[in-house]
Amino acid sequence: MSSSHHQNPSHAAEADENNHEEETFLDPNETVEEYSEDHHPDQDHPMSSDDDDDNEDQDHDMLLEEVIVDDSIQGFFLHTSPIYSVALYENYAATGSGDDLGYLWDVTNGEMILKLDGHTDSVTIVKFSFDGVYLATGGMDGQVRIWNVAEKKLVVALEAGDEIMVPHQPNPGFLGES
Fold first, then answer.
1. At residue 127, what are phi and psi to the nearest 5 degrees?
2. Proportion of the chain above pLDDT 90, given as a percent
3. What is the pTM of this model?
4. d(Cα 156, Cα 62) in Å, to the nearest integer?
5. What is the DSSP letter of 109?
6. Phi, psi of 83, deg, nearest 5
7. What is the pLDDT of residues 111-143, one digit of tens each?
8. Domains of the chain by residue range
9. Is 138 exposed, middle or buried (0-12, 13-18, 19+ CB in 10 A)?
10. Which CATH architecture group holds 83-159?
């Protein structure tokens, strides 16, 4: 008499699911390039780490070759962050920066005339009045500050409540192009 082993069909289905992982196939339309598995020792393998070394050497060589020569006539070096705005009027230059400061400069010698402080966020706009008497600074803190250039002092500080953005306007006015 032979004994045969009978398995409950539901248990067989569970066992079959546990033994087979879901198979994933690569869609041929998603491939960019194919490489054969035949690898010759004198050829570079596409995933070789030598490529990374070569790129690092090239990057290093490029950095050594890039020599930046500063041939500027004048520089305004007190800012500690990128400068977002520059305005010119006669021998004056005004700059506004991400360091929450503006500066008024003498362009003939590069000396700082006035530190335009009081902003609590980046100074994104500096503009002279049409006659150069006043200088306005505006920033991401929502403030507009008006300075008297000749007296080198703050005249008025205005709170707009949001960041100040002034579009480019070719028409002269208080904050117009000079």
1. -145, 140
2. 44
3. 0.56
4. 51
5. T
6. -90, 130
7. 999 999 999 999 999 999 999 999 999 999 999
8. 83-159
9. buried
10. Beta Barrel (2.40)
